[in-house]
Fold:
Amino acid sequence: MSNTFDIKQYHIKQQPFYQPQSNEVELYEAAYAARLPVMLKGPTGCGKSRFVEYMAWKLGKPLITVACNEDMTASDLVGRYLLDANGTRWVDGPLTLAARHGAICYLDEVVEARQDTTVVIHPLTDHRRTLPLDKKGELVEAHADFQLVISYNPGYQSLMKDLKQSTKQRFAGMEFDYASAETETAIISKETGVSSELAAQLVRIAGTARNLKGHGLDEGISTRLLVYAATLIKQGITPRDASRMALVRPITDDADIRDTLDHAIDAVFA
Amino acid sequence: MTTTAEEDRKTLDCNFPRVLSVLDDCMAHARAKLSPAGVAAYLEGARVIGKSGRGEEPILEFLEEMPLVAVQLGEDVIADVVEFTRMLARSPNSRAMAPFLQSLLTAARALESSELFREYLVLVAQTMQRTTPKVHGIDSMYDSPCLVDFLNSVPSLFGQVSLNGLRNWVDYGVKSYAHDPDNQREYFKLLSADSRAVLQRERHGALLIDNERKLDLYLRGLWASVLNFVPYSLAYDELRKPMPYLDNLGVHLPDVYDALPNGVSGVDRYRALLAHIVAHKRWSTPLIADNFSPFQRMAIEVFEDTRVEYLAMQEYPGLRNLWCALHPVPKEGTCPEGWSSLRHRLYTLSRALLDPHHGYTNPAILKYVQRFHEVMQAGATTTESMVTLGIQFIVETRAPNDSGAKIYFEDTEVDYRDDNRQMWRFIEEGDEEVYENQPTRPQQVEEKENESLPPRLYQEWDYSNEHYRPDWVSLYEHMHPKGDAGYIDKLLAKHNMLAKRLKKIIDMLKPQNKVRIRYQEEGSELDLDIAIRSLIDLKSGSQPDTRINMSHRHDGRSVAVSLLLDLSASLGDVPEGHTQTKLELSQEAVSLLSWAIEKMGDPFAIGGFNSDTRHAVRYQHFKGYKEHWGDEVKARLAAMEAEYSTRMGAAMRHAGHYLAHQEAEKKLLLILTDGEPADIDVHDPRLLIEDAKIAVRELDQKGIYTFCINLDPKADEYVSDIFGKQYAVIDNIARLPERLPQLFMSLVK
Structure:
């Protein structure tokens, strides 16, 4: 199986659009040169996944992404035996694949996974750089190009969902936040082709919602939602309707907050 | 005199000189407005009222008001009004005829339909019947003490509330002061605090209190700013309407804004005001007021208001629509000769600066609009840059009548702008009031010994009116004073045998339920259902689920308990055939229960309550959820005393308030009492029972289970009304120490 596996499909073919906010590209390149595992923190929709995609493209490495969830088990990461007509056969999980073939393995929203699951990444993330497959009785030596990247959103942190210290302290950390108003405007207008004036207005609405974080909103309006709104406007929807649909309705059920944000939309689009 | 006029007089058949002097004008007016049939009904009505023999006042009012009312609502109402007035004339309340007729026009204008108007007549009739003193159910010869006051208040009330609101307000006044005519009059004159509070609740428009969170979010979201709101009322100060302003306390603003006919909602009016004030806060710097004349100051204020609004609109262009909708539109050339047109000029300018489509032609206005925009477009403006503009505008447009006393105010009041007091610093002491120099009050020495929290206000349910009385009960929470903890230990030692029995029950109650956890890759047992499903998946060639095991875990208990003790005076009684007071028995029972719950490890609080009228409900703290059953708690329990009455609802709401904040799956409020809820300021025995019932329902909605343990053998009469089936009556009170812990355990089993 592993002999016939084609890692090429995981290469990023086109350059993803990514607008650097400061020196994060150099920092990441330095971390990759030393093959240090990297942790990306930041609110949802601020560009963490896009950044990893961009870096994989820039470094010319394949990228294997795993979206973590709470039902995920260790075997979902490392692989398992399957039954077939001739008996059983072993299938590598995404983490094993990445380690064998020298890909960047990106575990998205890693806190969603249960803590006992996340522990399997430990041997890969320190000096050992190995992955023991105890069921198979194999010790996978990580490929020289292999790197592990995880992302999580500290905003969601609840009592139940946090990384163990022993996991946290295996990573170099990079903090992401929503880009500054100018950068974000540039991102939206580049990504969707709307005028930078309209993009600036959308960013202003996002600013009001970000001010309300912690006062009834768990998260502000993300860059991703702004891109959605701009896309809708591009389709010919009026800016007000598009903003209500893409920016306000998804993030809140609280009538007072909805009302305030609707008013902000009216105030911004005269 | 024409023949029609003579015929009118004949038909009216009334010789009051004042009536005769206005009759012709009134009839001419009526003939111009009403149909011939309407005129006939009008004249006939006047005759009937004149013949009722109650003086000239009612007939004068009728002649004056009725045509306008009939025009508003149709001519059918004339007959209703006449009929009603006759009814008043025949009752002891004939004094109310004139005020009644006076109130009609406002009512007609506010209600706008004859159906609603008839409902108003019914309301007046009901008010009269319910407030007229009765002897054995029959009207006495005395008139209603408050009907006239009520009718006199009606015009101002219709400005603020709908008919429904008015009905609720009247209802409250009639019921609450049924035996207190003096206070009832105060109520209907709108002089008492209650009267205003109830009216406030019935007001139409956007109440600040309902929209406070929205406005907070608005400030925070759009302006990244936090301001305190200090509301004032517009309803009572008729002469000098207060204006919004900003000072160290925060934004002073009206407690209610009605929606405007042009579609601006009350909340948006608040937002317009806040946006203006925040813009000042952000961009205005104070000027020295002494350097300018009052006229110059006015002009500078107008320019500065406009400047900060201009800057705010750079950020949120949509504000222009909102402000334009609220800003009055002064019409050019409407200021009459001989009046001071200063305000009119300034606010025409202000409109022109705000609204690009103003359409004004006055060259001075246009010139200054252009100059203003030039200054603003140059960027980096300050309050100073408005000074030049303001002073020059005043000089250039000065008119001879400017200092005259007759100032033209029409369309010059911008109600979303504040009074700009933050803009000025006064150096020399002038006539103006100085707000910074508050007289220093002597520092009050805090009374250390009486350690209590500030009162919490709770509402109370008034079942007869079916509404909450707002902020009705003041509840004071104290730490209960301490006694000798050894006393409680002795009590526990006395019940040694019982404690041993309880211990056994507790051990059995300790958590042991098993909960199955399915979908486990590794677990203690094979989960057959899932395993078979996986096998089928495998055979059919799809990916099988490997999580075919299950395991078990112990289910933990999660119960928070609050015990509320009735400490009213009746607890001090010794029941017949017993040697101990109920209080002593309660003490023993509570001690045993506390000991038992401590053993079980559930979070547990004890509070006691009694009341001395609604102004002093006392809530005694014995034990908090985090406190352990130790000497401190025991000492407090040992000092338990019984006094005053039992206002249960407020105490339950308070205990529920704490309990709701506990993190537990199940929340239990136990109430130990010996009688029905009662207080010395409540005469209706049902009132507090109904209130307690509503309190139970409120707690239920918060997920709190309420259970009452009642020591009153006759409790069955009322206890199920309050608690439904969630109660137990303990007849043999001597067994309380034994029964209480048992009851608790059966509840949480």
Observations:
- Chain B has 27 helices and 20 strands.
